Amino acid sequence: MAGGGVAALGVKTERAAQYKGRMTLAVATTCLVAAVGGAIFGYDIGISGGVTSMDLFLEKFFPVVFHRKNSGGKNNYCKYDNQGLAAFTSSLYLAGLVASLVASPVTRNYGRKASIVCGGVSFLIGAALNVAAVNLAMLILGRIMLGVGIGFGNQAVPLYLSEMAPAHLRGGLNMMFQLATTLGIFTANLINYGTQNIKPWGWRLSLGLAAVPALLMTLGGLFLPETPNSLIERGRVEEGRRVLERIRGTADVDAEFTDMVEASELANTVEHPFRNILQPRNRPQLVMAVCMPAFQILTGINSILFYAPVLFQSMGFGGNASLYSSVLTGAVLFSSTLISIGIVDRLGRRKLLISGGIQMIVCQVIVAVILGVKFGAEKQLARSYSVAVVVVICLFVLAFGWSWGPLGWTVPSEIFPLETRSAGQSITVAVNLLFTFAIAQAFLSLLCAFKFGIFLFFAGWITVMTVFVYVFLPETKGVPIEEMVLLWRKHWFWKKVMPDMPLEDGWGAAEGHAAPASNNHKG
C-alpha cells in the first residue's frame, strides 16, 4: 500500500499544453463500439417499464397486479404497488452493485477489455433466461445475470472512454456512454410500443432483444485495443506507447506518455486500491464518487424511465397512449444528450449541472402542482392537463439529458488518479446501482403513499445537489485525466481537507502555496 514514501510519485508537473494529437478514426471507432455497453444499460431501463404494463406479462407472472389494474376500483396512485413487481425491476441493479465491486480487480489486473467481455457474456446469458422464462424464479435469475453484465460494463466502459479520448474532447466522447444509454431507452420504448399487440409472446421479444447489443459488446471487447493507461499500468510500456501513438495520430506523444508513466509508478505501489481511496489525499474524489451517482438517481429520472408507462397509466392515459408518451420521453432524452455532447467541452461541467438542476426543480414543482390540484385518487386527469404533464415531464427529461444524465457518469470517471481509478469507478457504479435499486424497489410504494408529493420529494433533492455542485465541484473541462489530482489542491475547500504532500518540480501542496509561474499554474 502506498505510504509517505511515494509522495513524489505520480504526475508532478502540468504538461497539458504540451499534449499533441487529434481526433482519429481509431478513437472514434473504439469509443463508438465501447459505448454499446451504455445501450444495453439503457435498453434494460426502458424495457422493464413497458413490459410491466403489458397485460399478458402481468397475467402470467403477477396476476394480483393484473386483476387490480383491470378491476377499476383501486386508488389511481396504488394500482401497481406490488413488491414482487418492483423486485423484477430492482433485482437487476442489486446484482449489478455486487458485480461492480468484483469487476474492479478484474479491470485493474486484466484490463478494461476483460471486464467489457465479461459484461457482454453475462448480458447474453441474462437475455436467454428472460426470453425463455416459464416462472418468476427464472425471470428474476435472468434479471440478476443482466445485472452482473451491468456491473462489469458500467465499471469498465466509462473508464475505457475517458482513457482513450484526447483531453480536450474527453467530455464529449465520454458522453458516448450516456448517448448510447439514452438510445437504448428510446429503442426499448419503441420496441415495447410495437410488441404490446403481439400475442402471446410480445413481452418475450422485448426482453430477448437485449441479446443484440450484448453480442456487439462482447465482440467489441474481443477486438478493441486496450487503453494505453491500462497497458502501462500492467508493465507493457512499449505496447502502451504504440497504442497511444496510434490513437492520437502522431508520434509526438512524449508529454502525455510521461504523465501516464508517472501515474503508473504510483499506481504500482498501491496494493489495496480500496484502502488507498479512503486516505485523506483522495477525499475529494471519494466524495464525488459517492455523491455524483447518488444525486443522479435522486433527480427521480429513473422513476420516470422505469415506470413511464405505469406512471402515465396511473394518471389516466390509456395503454397505447402511455407507451406512446414513454417513447416521446425517450426521444427527448436521446436528443438532449446530443446537445450535451456538443457543448460540454465548451461550457464546462459546472454550468450544465447547475442550469440543468434549476430547470428540473421547476419542472418537478409544476407537475406536482398540476397533479395536486387537478388529479385525485379516484378521478382521471383532463386531457388538456394530461398534455401539460407530458410536456413538463419532457422538459424535465430534456434538462436531465444535457446535465446530470451524462455528467453523473463523466465527472467521476475522469477525476481519479490511476492507482485508484478502477476502485473509484467501482464505487461510482455501486452507489449508482444501490440508489437505483432502492428507488426502483420503493417507487411504486412511494407513489402510493406520497401521491403528487413524490415530485416535490425529488425536487428537494435536486435543490440539494445543485447547491453541492456550486460549492464543491471544481471545473474539470480540459484538464488532462492524469493531472486531475493537481486540480483539487487549487480548490478553495478541498485544499483545506487534503494533507500536505510536497511534489517535485516546484509543486507544493501546503495550503495557500502557489505553483511557480513556469508551470503555467491556473487558479
Automatic annotation (TrEMBL):
It is a multi-pass membrane protein. The keyword Lyase does not apply. Signal peptide: none annotated. It comes from the Eukaryota. The chain crosses the membrane at residues 23-43, 84-102, 114-134, 173-191, 203-224, 286-310, 322-345, 352-373, 385-405, 426-446, 452-473. Its main location: membrane. One of its GO terms (cellular component) is membrane. SUPFAM superfamilies: MFS general substrate transporter. GO terms for molecular function: monosaccharide transmembrane transporter activity; symporter activity. InterPro entries: MFS_dom (IPR020846), MFS_STP/MST-like_plant (IPR044778), MFS_sugar_transport-like (IPR005828), MFS_trans_sf (IPR036259), STP/PLT_plant (IPR045262), Sugar/inositol_transpt (IPR003663), Sugar_transporter_CS (IPR005829). Residues 30-477 form the Major facilitator superfamily (MFS) profile domain. Keywords: Membrane, Sugar transport, Symport, Transmembrane, Transmembrane helix, Transport. The keyword Nucleotide-binding does not apply. It is found in: Membrane. Belongs to the major facilitator superfamily. Sugar transporter (TC 2.A.1.1) family. This is Putative hexose transporter.
